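Z., the sequence and structure:
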Amino acid sequence: MKAAALLLAGSMALAACASDEDTSSGSGGGSGESSAASGDLQIGLAYDTGGRGDKSFNDSAYAGVEAAIGDLGGEVTELSPNADGSNRVDLLTQLADDGNNPVIAVGFAFADALAEVAPQYPDTEFAIVDQSVADMGLDNATGLLFAANEGSFLGGVAAALKSESGHIGFVGGVETTLIQEFEAGFVAGAQAAKPGIVIDRQYISAAGDFSGFADPARGKILAQGMFQAGADIVYHAAGGSGQGVFEAAAEAGGRAIGVDSDQYETVGDPALQAVIMTSVLKRVDVAIQTFITDYSEGSVEGGSDVVNDLESDGVGLSTSGGQIDDIKTQLDDYTQQIISGDIEVPTTP
């Protein structure tokens, strides 16, 4: 089902706030302290690979929790998986055992862990980002999904229209079905805006190896190869590894497209900020804030998914820095064609 209209005001500020917070939650599974005043809500947050501080996916999730706490009160306990992600069941179990409710798993890699843990805690509401729960038989879980292909389509349009060389690139973190949706949308958008454009595509790690989301050195190497081959804009869907893509762009005199958060605002380094042309927003922060608010009001419908797409403003492009202001008319036109159904964006490359 489609989400109700999301409250998007302040999204940029929330993402920036997340990047400024302490990132002491370790990769071994330690809990973080809440920065909010104590209240009735006890929120458990289990991060994806790399934990908080990635200036992207995980930080966006944290920003959503902090925004909810700012409105409703409460506190959050944060846990991060170990390097190989083998303790995901332990993380969800610990959060539920400690009385957190709701418990939010950030990333599809928690799917198997959720299927094992949620039935053991029927009075705890769970949510998982980027994973459908519709066919999992879990009455106490909600899937928070995003039409990443639609946002990426607009990113592809922007890259094609702004490219001077007619050559762009895509760096994916892990070669999974989800990240392939980013690739598929990006390629389709670029080809729609500029037929014949050259598009390099590479992944940092293979399916099952989630290190690709936390390997900026490898991300930089792949992006460097693309810039050396003639690309002038590279889009990453690689979590914390995107930092390396930005560094490669800065060194090559090229530009880059960020993902999930408004990375122009979160990257921190002015030299890297200057190369971020736009970011494909996947408003994890707003989706999580909305879920927590619904939970507090008793209106969560477990066992179902909430899809955040262009129509609900759940995905889109950031405009910080003004580098895509001159193509706003074209982007708006493609957006309306997608919403109306005139353009059907593919989900597979």
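Residues 11-147+284-308 form a domain with the Rossmann fold fold (CATH 3.40.50.2300). The chain has two domains: 11-147+284-308, 148-282+314-340.

Let me know what you think.
H.
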